[in-house]
Amino acid sequence: MFKKVLIANRGEIAVRIIRTCQKLNIRTVAIYSEADVDSLHVKHADEAFLIGKPPVAESYLKVDTILEVAKQADVDAIHPGYGLLSENARFARACVEAGIAFIGPSPEVIERMGSKIAARTAMQTAGVPVIPGSDVALADEEEAVHLAHKFGYPVMLKASAGGGGIGMQLVRNDEEMRKAFAGNQKRATSFFGDGTMFLEKAVENPRHIEVQIAADHHGHVVHLWERDCSIQRRHQKVVEEAPSPFVDEALREKIGQLAVKAAKAIDYRNLGTVECLVDGEKNIYFLEMNTRLQVEHPVTEEITGIDLVEWQLLIAAGEQLPYAQHEIPLQGHAIEVRIYAEDPVTFFPSPGMIKRFTLPEGEGIRHEYAISEGYKVTPFYDPMVAKLIVSADTRGEAIQRLDRALKQYEIEGIKTNIPMLKQVINHPVFQAGEATTAFVTNHLKVKTGRNP
């Protein structure tokens, strides 16, 4: 096992990784920007290094600087967390070339799955169903219009690189396509350095179901059941739960086997997530594969009792998976909500000083955060400041527990999305387990805002 790990990330996920490392007696090294000097991940790590100014391009994305710190601190491995450099093949390759273990899949797999077009091709070759669409980059808006007629409107116009809904838009006619193409291409180029666009037939009102997989270096691949991530705002997940209330035993077995098949097809190693859309007839369509730990991983931990960060470390260290497929538990129900520093009406970011931060306590309540009273939320980073996870024997009990916890959750000094979360979990459609990806648009009395 590793002796010292550098965490190439910030905030709550860095704190989360530190917690598991401490459990395994692994020393930790944190990196931080000038804006994060008071973050809990800096205080909890064994060592911490200032690496630059607040903008991520001048700190958390500086590959050469991070590797210099890793060498100076004499670490065995680097954990990228999620976001930032976690799916950056250049960074993964640089770690390997420096003789430092990268806690994640190989650079080649990251590169391949980082392109949605390449991922579609790989899955089709493996016999994993994909949404009908273009398998090569669109040359221009006229080609996009032509193919949209071939598949039939509505279609989803998508950026091949990146994620988070950036460069993605539902298009219903030629006029919308011509308006959307240039803007989406420009946005994708700005965020990902790659304006490659493609399109898929729109699957309207689907469930967004994803499967957690794990694969070691000894040929073993397992799945750890599914998560339902259908509650989204502009393709950004807001509420996640496991298991899915929509998935029955037959579908659970089928989607789990497809996820394992997808991982084996690309010779995957470490943890990953196979994301799918499932329509009302329970047809499964591969959407993408995330080659990292997910924000919503705690709900899987709660229903399995498995520490997923520990599994990442074990696999990266060359050890075998602790469980075979038939040994992985599935017990109870868990729900996670993301607490964002944002205006609950416009959804614009709400930076400011945390004046009061009081968390509910009790059975089945879990928190992930890296803020405290006196901490300043800045506009430089993703506005998610914390996660609230609840677990119980049944879904109904979990919803009741979550409702009580949200009523007791107190953050003063900034605006948050907690009012929206209360609306979600108390809505009869959500409580009945019938929410699709159109839930926020169709059922909530809030504006959907726009991506900041």
UniProtKB/TrEMBL annotation:
GO terms classed as biological process: fatty acid biosynthetic process
Domain ATP-grasp: 120-317
Classification via Pfam families: Biotin_carb_C, Biotin_carb_N, CPSase_L_D2
UniProt xrefs under SUPFAM superfamilies: Glutathione synthetase ATP-binding domain-like, PreATP-grasp domain, Rudiment single hybrid motif
Domain named Biotin carboxylation: residues: 1-445
InterPro entries reported in the protein's UniProt record: ATP-grasp, BC-like_N, Biotin_carboxylase_complex, Biotin_carboxylation_dom, Biotin_COase_C, CPAse_ATP-bd, PreATP-grasp_dom_sf, Rudment_hybrid_motif
Swiss-Prot/TrEMBL keywords: ATP-binding, Biotin, Fatty acid biosynthesis, Fatty acid metabolism, Ligase, Lipid biosynthesis, Lipid metabolism, Nucleotide-binding
Function: This protein is a component of the acetyl coenzyme A carboxylase complex; first, biotin carboxylase catalyzes the carboxylation of the carrier protein and then the transcarboxylase transfers the carboxyl group to form malonyl-CoA.
UniProt KW Acyltransferase keyword: no
Catalytic activity as recorded in UniProt: N(6)-biotinyl-L-lysyl-[protein] + hydrogencarbonate + ATP = N(6)-carboxybiotinyl-L-lysyl-[protein] + ADP + phosphate + H(+)
Keyword Lipid biosynthesis: yes
Quaternary structure, from the entry: Acetyl-CoA carboxylase is a heterohexamer of biotin carboxyl carrier protein, biotin carboxylase and the two subunits of carboxyl transferase in a 2:2 complex.
Entry EC number(s): 6.3.4.14
UniProt name for this protein: biotin carboxylase
A Gene Ontology molecular function term of the record: metal ion binding
Involved pathway(s): Lipid metabolism; malonyl-CoA biosynthesis; malonyl-CoA from acetyl-CoA: step 1/1
